[in-house]
């Protein structure tokens, strides 16, 4: 009992002393303002030499407890100079922070967990801001919005259908059979940009799944959610991404919350779609009809003229719709010292230039940043997307009677193909399909449900005067559920000839899951009294991909039925894949007084797609930048930046899934199910394709960066390209896939930007970009060959892989001799953009894009020549072409152009007008008109010189077969800020 009383007295004594300890803490309060008198909200306040800190509130006020006095407080905030203030006694103080142009400088990615000021970067990293991306006009997709805005990036449309379809090539072709689309990362999440076949080819007779006019799934991302895009164009910049970086890397950062009161933005776009360039009707006369088709056709021609007063212009009837476009978006941003948020939702509904085509996308996003303590902070990005496409029937086929271009090539304009009073469509007497029946009754749709979730947790492990150590964990999931549906009624003309097999239906159920994680330990160290700074990072990265594609098809449909189970003949295909990759990386950056900046890095990767899934492959990187204008001896005031830079890096590209194994196929012998070798031999020793790139460059800034210039030369060698070669029958196989070739790309990139005028009345910013690329096959261990899926053989022309020649060359058989007839690679490309602001209220902008050189293989004209419907056949030149053998040389055309890619004019209501109309509720109103693809000057004779019959993959650019025509768009815009 006595012992318990002693313990109680000691406890009481401690409780009495506790307030003394508490009040022994020294509390410092105050307000942080700018040198103009404005408060600085959410500035960092740190007790120097400790991890003790806080932030100012919305009014710039702060309160911090320090254990001992005197103490030094460090005040910092983006855009302001850092201030150190010694405090000798508790109480209130006032702090003034000046604006810092250096602190506001743009930063670019240099590692998986670090960034660097652009003025110190040793690579040519292109960036596109939100204003540059969507500030001019409405954009359907992210890749389409990048047209003409990035030096060194070649973008080709693979379809004019709503929802897009684009091929992006960063610094040329990086693989022959493998992936050529860049790796895309959104807020740390690896994004799937797959094109999904629907089974349409089994009804149309197309050759392969990439001829089915599918869009790529980057279309699911709303461009208006994006804050900025960084593009790592070459291996020297993308080396830290290892085996995923061969085709370059696109890093997308979406909008995030900002502290202060909640701000709401409402945006409404209304627009129309029209065909960009109609080819027109051949100017038929009775004489030309007689000469071409005979007297019976003349009689029909005269009867149609007498009845209608004109011929049927089926091109205008099919492609001449005016598509209506609406997009509505609402977003909110705000937060406090602990939590910031961005919430956004949008709905886009875009009708196509063909009746019953369109694309709609509903997107909702929540980006949350939360500061748990001075040690931990967390960021979450959540995006749900529902998109739907109706892409109808265009592109290549083999007389399936579905593709509009094929059908129109042979349809004669005096034939009435409209339905009768009972709704019955007549058969087309000149081809296997009636395009009006297809437009009104056949279906080619897809729908997508997608969830993209990213999560980042940062931990500040240690902080003192010269060291800052943090640990970053990042994880992301991209889940895509896709459904495709193709339906051709049994009453379709081409189906009627199939008897009991008439009618076609295909239902696809496809799912894709990507999961990636990344952990990095980052150590910032200041040496030599702060003159030399080191940033070191080490970490791991993991990627898991799972896909499951199921396509069920049926022919012999019961009358009026659209389900596979209502068909007589049923087939189901399934493709499943599972891939895993693991990498370890390390990197050290050194910065001496912003004068000399060097980087060394290395990444080791292993992949289940390699021959040995447990073998690590190494990818080094090194770079140096020298800022001469920051040197002590520099005295040229007009030149405020002169940076010389050089960089080297290596990246990889694993073999296709399954290439390392010998494939087995199902067999049925006497009712017994088994497996047998299908003839393709795998290579267990296949190694990843590896690209090594060296780039050098010069960056200049003149007159306090009012004029900037960037020049880059690069040389990129891709070795161990994975190809398929034929094997002798005695081997027991027909083909083998292994490392067989090398490829080289060389290029130049130039960019100039200038603030020409900067006055109260007029602000004018302009920019010019120039870039070119040259490729060559430097090693080929197999005989030269026509690339499968990139042409139609040497008879009509094809991409041809040949040592010593460009990888983009077009070759055809001319009088029995294989001859290079063209090259799809442009001679060079340029872009010219201008932005003007008049009297702070009127914004005018326009973007021209120039492509010089490069040829297309126009096989749409081959078909219209066969059908005698090409518009120029009334001319002597057209008739002379008909007398020329139908070989590749006849259909190769120059594909250069000058295009007004974007143009807009906006008006911002003056603030006093807004206040007078809406009071304090509305902060700003902006109205505008804009357009995309407003005009094009070109010698190319078809719909668009940007074509790709085989989608965005492979080497298909520059080959045209009856595409979905590209369109011109005009918009009205309303933006309101609350």
Q: What does this protein look like?
A:
It comes from Patiriisocius hiemis. Belongs to the TonB-dependent receptor family. Residues 120-249 form the TonB-dependent receptor plug domain. Residues 399-770 form the TonB-dependent receptor-like beta-barrel domain. Keywords: Cell outer membrane, Membrane, Receptor, Signal, TonB box, Transmembrane, Transmembrane beta strand, Transport. This protein has 978 residues and is mainly beta. The chain folds into 2 domains: 2-97, Immunoglobulin-like, CATH 2.60.40.10; 184-258 and 267-278 and 320-402 and 442-854 and 895-977, TonB-dependent receptor, beta-barrel domain (Maltoporin, Chain A), CATH 2.40.170. Helix content is 12%, strand content 50%. The protein is built from 16 helices and 48 strands. The strands form 9 sheets. It has a 22-stranded antiparallel β-barrel. Strand 33 (689-702) and strand 34 (707-726) form a beta hairpin. Helix 6 runs antiparallel to helix 7 and helix 9 (404-410) runs parallel beside helix 13. The radius of gyration is 32 Å and the shape is globular. The relative contact order is 0.12.
């Amino acid at each position: 009992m006595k012992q318990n009383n002693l313990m109680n007295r000691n406890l009481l004594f401690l409780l009495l002393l506790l307030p003394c300890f508490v009040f022994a803490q020294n509390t410092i309060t105050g307000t942080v303002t700018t040198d103009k008198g404005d408060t600085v909200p959410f500035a960092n306040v740190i007790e120097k030499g400790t991890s003790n800190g806080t932030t100012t509130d919305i009014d710039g006020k702060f309160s911090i407890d320090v254990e001992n006095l005197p103490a030094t407080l460090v005040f910092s905030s983006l855009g302001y100079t850092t201030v150190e203030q010694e405090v000798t006694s508790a109480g209130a103080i006032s702090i003034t922070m000046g604006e810092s142009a250096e602190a506001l400088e743009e930063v670019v990615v240099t590692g998986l967990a670090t960034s660097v000021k652009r003025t110190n970067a040793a690579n040519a990293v292109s960036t596109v801001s939100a204003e540059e991306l969507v500030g001019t006009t409405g954009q359907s997709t992210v890749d389409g919005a990048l047209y003409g805005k990035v030096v060194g990036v070649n973008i080709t449309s693979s379809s004019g259908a709503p929802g897009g379809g684009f091929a992006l090539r960063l610094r040329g072709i990086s693989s022959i059979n493998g992936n050529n689309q860049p790796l895309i990362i959104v807020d740390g999440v690896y994004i799937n940009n797959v094109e999904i076949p629907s089974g349409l080819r089994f009804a149309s007779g197309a050759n392969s799944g990439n001829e089915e006019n599918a869009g790529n799934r980057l279309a699911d991302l709303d461009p208006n959610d994006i804050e900025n895009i960084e593009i790592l164009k070459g291996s020297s910049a993308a080396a830290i991404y290892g085996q995923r970086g061969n085709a370059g890397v696109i890093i997308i950062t979406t909008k995030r919350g900002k502290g202060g009161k909640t701000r709401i933005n409402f945006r409404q776009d209304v627009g129309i779609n029209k065909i960009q360039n109609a080819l027109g009707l051949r100017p038929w006369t009775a004489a030309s009809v007689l000469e071409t088709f005979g007297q019976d056709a003349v009689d029909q021609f005269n009867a149609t003229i007498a009845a209608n007063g004109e011929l049927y212009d089926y091109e205008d009837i099919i492609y001449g719709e005016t598509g209506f476009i609406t997009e509505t978006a609402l977003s909110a941003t705000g937060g406090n010292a602990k939590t910031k948020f961005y919430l956004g939702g949008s709905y886009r509904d875009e009708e196509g230039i063909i009746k019953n085509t369109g694309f709609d996308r509903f997107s909702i996003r929540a980006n949350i940043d939360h500061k748990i303590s001075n040690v931990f902070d967390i960021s979450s990005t959540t995006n749900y997307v529902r998109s739907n496409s109706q892409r109808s029937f265009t592109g290549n086929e083999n007389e399936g009677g579905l593709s509009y271009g094929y059908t129109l090539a042979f349809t004669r304009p005096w034939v009435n193909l409209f339905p009768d009073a009972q709704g019955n469509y007549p058969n087309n007497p000149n081809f296997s399909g009636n395009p009006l029946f297809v437009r009104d009754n056949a279906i080619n749709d897809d729908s997508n449900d997608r969830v993209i979730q990213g999560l980042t947790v940062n931990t500040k492990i240690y902080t003192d005067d010269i060291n800052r150590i943090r640990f970053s964990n990042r994880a992301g999931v991209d889940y895509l559920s896709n459904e495709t549906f193709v339906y051709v009624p049994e009453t379709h003309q081409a189906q009627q000839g199939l008897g009991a097999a008439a009618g076609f239906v295909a239902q696809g159920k496809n799912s894709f899951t990507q999961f990636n994680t990344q952990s990095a330990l980052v150590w910032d160290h200041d040496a030599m009294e702060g003159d030399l700074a080191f940033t070191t990072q080490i970490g791991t990265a993991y990627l898991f991909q799972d896909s499951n594609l199921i396509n069920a098809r049926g022919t012999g449909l019961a009358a009026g039925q659209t389900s596979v189970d209502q068909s007589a003949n049923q087939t189901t295909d399934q493709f499943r894949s599972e891939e895993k990759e693991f990498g370890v990386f390390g990197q050290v950056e050194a910065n001496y007084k912003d004068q000399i900046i060097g980087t060394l890095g290395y990444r080791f990767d292993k992949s289940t797609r390699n021959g040995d899934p447990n073998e690590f492959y190494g990818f080094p990187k090194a770079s140096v930048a020298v800022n001469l204008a920051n040197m002590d001896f520099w005295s040229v005031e007009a030149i405020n930046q002169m940076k010389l830079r050089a960089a080297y890096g290596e990246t990889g590209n694993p073999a296709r899934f399954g290439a390392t194994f010998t494939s087995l196929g199902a067999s049925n012998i006497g009712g017994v199910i088994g497996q047998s070798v299908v003839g393709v031999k795998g290579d267990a020793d296949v190694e990843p394709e590896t690209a090594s790139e060296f780039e050098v460059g010069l960056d200049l800034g003149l007159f306090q960066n009012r004029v900037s210039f960037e020049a880059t030369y690069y040389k990129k060698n891709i070795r161990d390209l994975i190809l398929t070669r034929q094997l002798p029958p005695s081997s027991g196989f027909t083909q083998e896939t292994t490392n067989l070739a090398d490829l080289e790309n060389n290029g130049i990139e130039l960019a100039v930007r200038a603030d020409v005028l900067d006055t109260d009345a007029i602000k004018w910013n302009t920019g010019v970009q120039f870039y070119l690329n040259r490729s060559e096959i430097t090693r080929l261990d197999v005989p030269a060959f026509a690339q499968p899926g990139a042409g139609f053989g040497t008879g009509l022309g094809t991409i041809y892989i040949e040592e010593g020649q460009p990888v983009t060359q077009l070759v055809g058989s001319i009088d029995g001799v294989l001859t290079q007839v063209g090259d799809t690679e442009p001679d060079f490309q340029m872009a010219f953009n201008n932005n003007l602001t008049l009297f702070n209220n009127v914004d005018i902008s326009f973007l021209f894009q120039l492509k010089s050189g490069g040829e297309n293989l126009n096989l749409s004209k081959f078909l219209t020549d066969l059908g005698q419907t090409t518009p120029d056949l009334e001319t002597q030149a057209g008739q002379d072409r008909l007398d020329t053998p139908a070989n590749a040389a006849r259909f190769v055309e120059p594909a250069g152009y000058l295009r007004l890619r974007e143009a807009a004019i906006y008006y911002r209501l003056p603030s006093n007008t807004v206040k007078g109309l809406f009071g304090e509720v509305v902060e700003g109103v902006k109205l505008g008109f804009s357009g995309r693809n407003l005009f094009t000057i070109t010698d190319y004779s078809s719909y668009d010189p940007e074509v790709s019959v085989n989608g965005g993959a492979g080497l298909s650019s520059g080959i045209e077969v009856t595409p979905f025509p590209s369109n011109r768009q005009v918009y009205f815009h309303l933006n309101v800020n609350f």
